[in-house]
Amino acid sequence: MAEVILSKVRKAYGNVLAVKDFSLDIADQEFVVLVGPSGCGKSTTLRMIAGLEDITSGTITIGNRVVNDLQPKDRDIAMVFQNYALYQHMTVYDNLAFGLRNRRTPERDIEAAIRHAAKVLSIEGLLDRRPRQLSGGQQQRVALGRCIVRNPKVFLFDEPLSNLDAQLRAQMRLEIKELRQRVPTTSIFVTHDQVEAMTLGDRIVVMKDGLVQQVGTPLELYRRPVNQFVASFIGSPSMNFFQMRISGAGDQILLTGEGLSFALPPSRFPGLARSDSDSVTVGVRPQHLRLGRAEDADQVSFSGTLMVTEQLGDEQLLAIRVGNSDIRIAGVDPELNLATGASIEVATAMDNLHIFDGTSGVALR
Ligand code: ADP
To answer: Measured in angstroms, how far is the CA atom of residue 77 from the centroid of ligand 1?
Structure first.
């Protein structure tokens, strides 16, 4: 049982601030995912929690104990890496036993822990094999098994699925979720893959340039991104954006740009009405656009030229050119036969519009 508390944790490599004042309370048994593009500081954060990197400043607490100066082996954590780091010359059993034998755990207890872990992970039949006689997914399960046998307070995962092919990755995601139900343990999982983050995390921490951008549940991040970066990072295909200017106020806020104009009621967009900025970025998700005209005053519509269609079987994805932007539309009827070059009208409810400050990218509603 362990809470993990990071308080203003910072890491500098010379002049480079890899992690800037990271603060987060992770509840006991919570599964938190750190996500962001390469170089945003997520691995460094995880490695500081593990004790594999010194902390420049700040405090890390695991289960009521400040661990800043504790060796990794004394922190009661277990870490799964991208390359499973299994010992090739040992059997699966000996790989699982290795850490416990180092701690001089009695063989009887080791055996009981391995039987339990092997059952949880369905690898009972593999204990006499060597790693090279296992598939990628089986090796990954053994790597997880090594964590489970130690019964740690916290699991740390450093991109553990990124070496697997897409199908196996999807399967291992499910296995990690099932494992959570059987072995509920506080977990911190690092990935650059937003789908992995969305599907695994109770809460997600989105990072960019060493800074936490937003912390929230998957739905909070999807529905209410606090800035344009989070909006574009979460969701697939990525959110569409238009650069627009505020050209009128009063009863209606008029936004124009890219050959479009939207008239929005200030009561529905109070943040926009209060903004001093005259340039905004309007965002709308591909899944929220549908073909056709606006049907009532709650909807806005615009048209563009069809550039590309992508057939996915259960839906089509379209790309239409609107002004200088390529706009994606998802969820289009796969049977619909559309000619490239055609003019396509699309509509969406006003509530689906996200509005960001044109300079800072901060959400205005
Ligand atoms: P991520 O895991 O999000 O890809 P990292 O935590 O690995 O990012 O790196 C964050 C930043 O710190 C990057 O700019 C990276 O170049 C820098 N960095 C990481 N490790 C070192 C190091 N040992 N020495 C200098 N800079 C480093």
So the answer is: 22
* 212 vs 207: CA distance, rounded Å: 4
Q: What's the predicted TM-score (pTM) here?
A: 0.93
* 59's tokens: 């405090």
Q: What is the pLDDT along the chain (365 residues), one digit of tens a residue?
A: 799 999 999 999 999 999 999 999 999 999 999 999 999 999 999 999 999 999 999 999 999 999 999 999 899 999 988 777 789 999 999 999 998 998 899 999 999 999 999 988 889 999 999 999 998 888 988 998 998 898 899 999 999 888 788 888 888 899 899 888 888 999 999 999 999 999 999 999 999 999 999 999 999 999 999 999 999 999 999 999 999 999 866 788 999 998 899 999 988 888 887 887 889 999 999 999 999 999 998 999 999 999 999 999 999 999 999 988 899 999 999 999 999 999 999 999 999 999 999 999 999 97
Cβ of residue 42 lying under 6 Å from some atom of ligand 1: yes
Element spanning 246, H or E: strand 240-248
Which of 9, 34, 44 best tests ligand 1's pocket when mutated (most atoms within 8 Å of CB)? 44
The number of beta carbons lying within 10 Å of the beta carbon of residue 280 is 23
Compute the distance from residue 272 Cα to the ligand 1 centre, in Å: 37
Instruction: Give the amino acid at 294.
Output: A
Closest CA to 154 of 111, 202, 112, 186: 186
Could you give the maximum distance between any two Cα atoms of the chain, in Å? Answer: 78
* Pocket perturbation via mutation, ligand 1, pick of 10, 11, 13 by most ligand atoms within 8 A of CB: 13
